[in-house]
Amino acid sequence: MRAARVTRYVSRERFMLKGNILTTDGWIYGSIEFANGRVTALEGARVDPKTNGAPYILPGFVDCHVHGGGGADIMEGGDAATTVAREHAKHGTTSMLATTMTAPRDELMAVVKGLGEQSIRRAPGGARVLGVHLEGPYINPGKLGAQPDAAAVAVRDEVLKYLSLAPIRVVTIAPEISGHIEVIQEMAARGVRVQLGHSLGTYDDAVNALKHGARGFTHLFNAMSPLHHRDPGMVGAALAHAEYAELIPDLLHVHPGAIRAALRAIPRLYVVTDSTSASGMPDGEYRLGSQHVTKCMGGVRLADGTLAGSTLTMDQALRNLVSIGLPMADVSNRLSRYAADYLGLEDRGRIARGAWADLVVFDRELALTATYVEGESIVEYA
Fold first, then answer.
1. Which is the catalytic residue, given 205, 274, 315, 358?
2. Is 48 a catalytic residue?
3. 322 is in which domain, residue-wise?
4. 12 and 106 share a domain?
5. N or C: which end of the chain has fewer CB within 10 A?
6. pTM to 2 decimal places
């Protein structure tokens, strides 16, 4: 059994940290001060962090695709999102999107309404829930992945109802379904980030959707038509045209070679966990929406062996990407800044005066030693 843990949350009006700080202009060795949740001062000299033994101070992680964690699943409603936000804050996530699963309309409406209410304020000790990523139901029933078999065709009035219930920041949609291009246009005009996924669409379907307002791709390579040199598919469209796309770097969902190909092709490829309720928990049986999933051997799967989300946390994602040769600054951008930019957030995902004091501290062995969410120190003791 997992050892019992006690988590303490400490909030202070003013705080100062010293170390190798990754700013918007590069690395400095110096100090950062914050008060009332915002960065108030930033001082130091340019440095190559490899030349000293000081800790790394990075922007807090922004995760746009979170289904669960700490034994809780977003689709449970109630306080589940609070449990999830607290679990991921322990691993450096300072802001996140609560991500839904495909479900019958009434059930999904109720969950979204509850998330809208929880997005108004941040629970102490947890990451900021910025809003909702609606992953389904507007997907192709032939490319469900681990989504339940409840896919639906998007209808404008229904989509607008969801938007009225909660801050829907991101919607995943299959562009090849009749009527979806018009819905993509509508959502994009309202500031929603539309991304393509769970799709059997062709290269041309994806390019057409990008022309009509789609901006990204959901968990690139997974649950979408693959690349073939005479039939480029959704993956080919992403590699050829996308500025932004999600990627799950748990080293199970995507081979390191494919990760490298995507890094060369997509300027602002950013990291998501696609985490489930099994994240932070021992091996065993868990829920992913209405699905039963099993955590074992570092992954989460349906009974037929299909990968069903992940157990990934953002601190482990950082270590994974560094392990395949990416520089720390580049990794940090893909864990924080690019996702914030994608969402249009200028005061998160970066360390700068006036930005939210969302910070993570790593030691030289890349162990996470501290997380600050809007200036609040989150401390875990065994």
1. 274
2. no
3. 61-346
4. no
5. N
6. 0.94
